[in-house]
Structure formats: structure tokens, C-alpha cells
Amino acid sequence: MDHTHLQAPEDLISYYQLLPHPEGGYYKETYRSGAVIDTGSSEFPGGRHYGTAIYFLLQQQDFSAFHRIKSDEIWHFYEGGPLLIHMIDPAGNLTTIRLGRHAAEGETFQAMVPAGSWFASEPVSGAGFAFVGCTVAPGFDFSDFELAEKEKLCALYPQHRDIITRLTRQ
Q1: CB 57 within 8 A of CB 27
Q2: If we measure between CA atoms, which residue out of 170, 152, 84 comes closest to residue 161?
């Protein structure tokens, strides 16, 4: 396949061998540091790799459901249309970042989701798809991943019930 013409999401999924992600969309881990940091913390039992990175693709009809992890996550825009990243911090403040290539439209190539924040993402209407990358430090481990339960998250943040209901699966 000529990688210079990877413009359809199906081509990207095939070329990069992306797999379905539990939160929605497709992903592939591209980096996991060889070294492990012993945090000395009960929050990260057994330590964590220094950092990890993935490719992540969402098609128009899909979304990444609200979830949280115990590490900071940096998002990088690569291809397709803009991606909205919705974050609810522990105090209940909702922030939406527009990841994309058009600074004049309020988009940014990189965004950071702080550890412990609930977050979800979706391509903007009409985007078709968004192909991005995510870098996590300390490195991602599925034991640090928590998928939101709709009613529990709505009970915590009733002021955000509409977006929580729309971007959760359970």
C-alpha cells in the first residue's frame, strides 16, 4: 500500500494494524519504554514504564467513552478532522479542547489531560475521522484504566449529565 495516500480511516486501520479499543475507536501501541520506574507509591503497584505511546483513530460515528487513568496523557493530532476532548476535573469543571491543525479556529496540535480527570473524545461533526496519538507518563497500564459508569458519573457531576449520558456506554 502506498502510505502517501492513506486518507481513508479504513486505510489507516489496515496500514497501522489498529485494533478495537475498549473505550471506542481503534489503537495500536507504538512505544513502551524498556525501563521501569519504581514510584514507591501504592497508586502504581509494581512500578510503571517511563512512558508509552499509541496511535488512536475515531471515525465519525464513534467516540471514546468517558474514562480516567492515573497518569498524564498528551494527545497529538496527525490526520483527518478535528477531535474534541472533553475533560471533567476532580472539582467538576468541564473543559473541551479542540485538537486539530487550524489554530485560527481554536485548534491545537497537542493537548494534555491531567491524571485523574475523566475524559472522552469525539470527532467534530463532519470531520469523518480523527487520527491522533497519545503519550502517557508514567506509562499506560490497563490496571490504571477506569471506564466510567454512566449513573455513577452523573451522580458525581449532575451538571454535566447531558454530555456524560451521550459519551458513556454503560
Answers
A1: yes
A2: 152
